[in-house]
Fold:
Amino acid sequence: MAFLQKIRPSLSQRICDTSRAALVCLVLSIPGGLAASPISQNLSNPQQIGSATFRFLGIPVYDAQLFTPDGAAFSWDADFGLKLTYRKTLKQKALVESTLEEMARQGNPAPSQSALEGCYKAVGKGDSYIAISEGPNKVGFWRNGQKTCTLSYPGAKRAFMSIFLGADTRSARFTRQLKGQ
Structure:
């Protein structure tokens, strides 16, 4: 390399730039973009088992992906991760209120509004939220890879995740696709 720098200084810079570009391509090619994801850090060998797009009046609102350890079938008895990637801009108030309304509609215990306000921030197109269960009583939340909160109360996992994965969701088809069925 020293020889190259003496005879063609610009060539060694191009080789270095090419090496960096190759490294970036390698990192970006890791399946599912899970290289440094909270999902890969909190679940053992997470594999995506299903995906679905949630629509409101036919308009896509978010894309959802469900991850389980080793790609096992969905079970309430095991931890799992849910990733939502938004296609629309939504205000914090809309996220909080719709979550509380849906939990109430399903008859599930809900956290306080202030607890959810600590978890949720407004989202724009391309923003993502990840929710990962931590046993039956905790759900951790990440917005664009940054931890925002952990909801912790008896039955928190089933109460919150039933919005997407329960028996009484707004769209049975969405839920089946998300579960990989």
Observations:
- The two ends are 55 Å apart (CA to CA).
